[in-house]
Backbone:
């Protein structure tokens, strides 16, 4: 597997893992489920694409087509993560609230409608801009370290 892929997967995994202690600080309880959830701090989408672009740029050069593709791909992913996906999550919250209001108006409310329902719409899909920025910074750091580590190994073993 290429070092670029390993770098990006590591960045995604680390960003997802960091959601556990960050969520614990915020909610005062540990939630291991956070590692499998989308949204939240930091953005693993941003960390993955930023690490790949950084590693590619350092390894091949900033003027190469590979770097340009990685940067444009990364910008699209980050825009989508903080824009479209975030708005989809906000829409899900409104739909869930609307279902609860309709149930109350119909007089069928027992207070636990969504517990009986198969599934509420997922509300946390996207990211706030600061979550995207922190993920990108984390990715840049990981991409840089990956490049430096790969150069050091080549130097030692040659």
Residues:
């Amino acid at each position: 597997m290429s070092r670029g892929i390993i770098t990006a997967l590591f960045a995604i995994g680390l960003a997802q893992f960091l959601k556990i202690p960050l969520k614990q600080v915020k909610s005062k309880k540990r939630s291991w489920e956070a590692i499998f959830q989308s949204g939240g701090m930091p953005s693993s989408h941003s960390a993955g694409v930023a690490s790949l672009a950084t590693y590619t740029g350092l390894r091949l050069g900033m003027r190469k087509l590979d770097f340009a593709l990685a940067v444009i791909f990364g910008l699209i992913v980050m825009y989508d993560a903080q824009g479209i996906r975030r708005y989809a999550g906000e829409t899900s919250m409104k739909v869930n609230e609307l279902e609860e209001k309709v149930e109350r108006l119909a007089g069928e409310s027992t207070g636990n409608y969504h517990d009986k329902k198969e599934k509420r719409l997922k509300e946390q899909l996207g990211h706030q801009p600061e979550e995207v920025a922190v993920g990108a910074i984390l990715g840049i750091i990981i991409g840089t370290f990956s490049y430096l580590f790969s150069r050091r190994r080549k130097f030692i073993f040659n």
The mean pLDDT is 81. The two ends are 21 Å apart (CA to CA). The first helix runs from residue 3 to 27.
